[in-house]
Amino acid sequence: MGGGGFGQTFEILDQKDKTRKVLKVLLKEHPKAIALFKQEAKVLSELSHPGIPKVDKDGYFTFMPKDESPLHCLVMEKIEGLDLQEWMKERKKEPISPELAMDWLKQLVEILDRVHSLQYFHRDIKPQNIMRKPDGQLVLIDFGTAREVTETIMGFSSNGSGEQDNDKKRATGIVSPGYTPPEQTNGKAVPQSDFFALGRTFVYLLTGKPPTAYPENPRTGKLLWRKGAPNIPKQLADVLDYLMAPFPGNRPQNPGVVLQCLAEVELNPPPRDSDEREDPKSDTKGKKKEQLKAKIHLSELKIKIPFKAIGILSVIVTMGGLIYTQVDGYRRYGLIPANPMLVIRGWPNRMWLLGHKEALGQVYALAIAPDGETLVAGTFGTIRRWGIHSGEVFNPESVHSSWVRALAFSPNGEIMVSGSNDKTIRMWWGSRQRTIEGHTGSVHALVFSPNGQILASGSEDRTIILWDTNGRRLSTILAHDLPVNALAFNPQGNVLASASADASIRLWNVNVGDSSRRLTITGHGDSINAIAYSPDGETIASASDDGTVRLWNANTGEQLRVFEGHRGPVKSLVITPDGQTLIAGGDHIVLWNLNTGEIITTLWGHGDLITALALTPDGKILTSGSEDKTIKIWQLKL
User: Fold this and answer.
1) CB 3.0–4.6 Å: which of 45, 46, 192, 603 could bond 248 by disulfide?
2) What φ, ψ does residue 371 adopt, rounded to 5°?
3) Is 83 assigned a catalytic role?
4) Comparing C-alpha atoms, which of 171, 208, 229, 254 is closest to residue 94?
5) Looking at residue 186, what is its pLDDT?
6) pTM (2 decimals)?
7) CATH 1.10.510.10 applies to domain 2-267
8) Which CATH number fits domain 351-636: 3.30.1330.60, 2.130.10.10, 3.60.15.10, 3.20.140.10?
């Protein structure tokens, strides 16, 4: 298929599944090149994203020709379709629409987020290295290849004919005129170099001309390209200029910032005229500006506003919780955000942030009443309640002397319980309360049986205690070697699953006079923080500090699938009532198709670890709580 210098590419037929794949071969021996080739092969094999060529775990191997040095090989998915340069030529370089540009930008930033999360960056983004599949999915190619590895190490760069261009040798070795940023040309590529090349790629797509066709400001180095695309929204052009800032420190510092910018463009599209004049016959825009100003000046949400009045395009936010990169990003490219905490990733108009609540403390527990109307959150010693649909804010209740770590409602909604680091459980029957004692360590988990007759609690003291609905102890199970972090009943109510800091899951019989262990499941490499049964009770999902979510056969303990998509610990987990979607929270929220393992979308917006998730019974609203001291309410239309 091609190659040059140190590597070649071949199309092959996989005899196992009769599919055509790509074989990359490193032809020449060089210790550093081989080391990075192996490293990149490993990274690609760990990535799971429809926009990245798939590499199986055994995709990397060495072949030993007779009397020759070993050949290092990498087999990956063959991507069908055209690259974007070929695609543009087929349409006679007609510029793409702003709407398509927004869709493609989000796709590509999603891909970069996945790549950057593994401490890797592409270094050669350009139209030729982006494939468009027949279904419209974009795929980023030509990273992790032999050619890229050897060029990166050996200072090789192609002049377009496959020959080495010695005049362009640099430490990073990859120079694509018009797309390569200044720092990379000088041998100092950084992850933000990808954003520069991405912005330049969209200049080509939106104007039909390569970036080299436009001059640069001799004083600032800024590309003067906007006259080539007079009909695109100014805010979108602002985002592209932000990506293409000559100095890498003035570009977005991570993909999340880029997605915030795009979300703002999508939710608050400006007029297409560059001067943004308003129609003097209409005061609609003026009213919108006043509404946005009002939202910006809200310092905390202690007001009653019905969610129906908020609407999809009117999201309540606060400015107090902004992290530095958000503020800095908007400051640098000049777009004043109406709702800077909002980040929407994935499909437009399908995942929306409905609301943002200040919890006045780190949030370690969330629960939603069975009627789907009341949200309860636990912070330091305090329980706070909100009306999910009404927006009503209830007075906070100080009920514990330390952090609230667990919350649960009985299935009929008549009882609510809370567990705390103060080693106690509080039980509410309407206005009546009772303190339950029995654990000798922090209470980490609470769950009611499906029939509502048994409450199970899990603790730092390594035990599980079963209680009746009056708070009387029924039995105690010495469950794990380390703290019990999470509990879940199967839908039938006869099996209780526990997850522990000892990295194991254990299943327990829950029958009269029988609390014996049925099964132990292992496979995680670190503490397990959350578990959930599928609605049919056949599978168990678990989330761990090892950065993975895993799916297990609930009857045999066999591992069925590993879900990857977080950069660090995964702290929270839920499965939608229809059993189709798995949702997990860590540094961000990831939604997977439970059956295929494909990532559906990811939701950003929290500034710290997401430690709690809760779904309404109909599965339409997701709530997330974080160590950033906020709660977010998301509408899901899957």
Assistant:
1) 192
2) -80, -5
3) no
4) 208
5) 84
6) 0.54
7) yes
8) 2.130.10.10
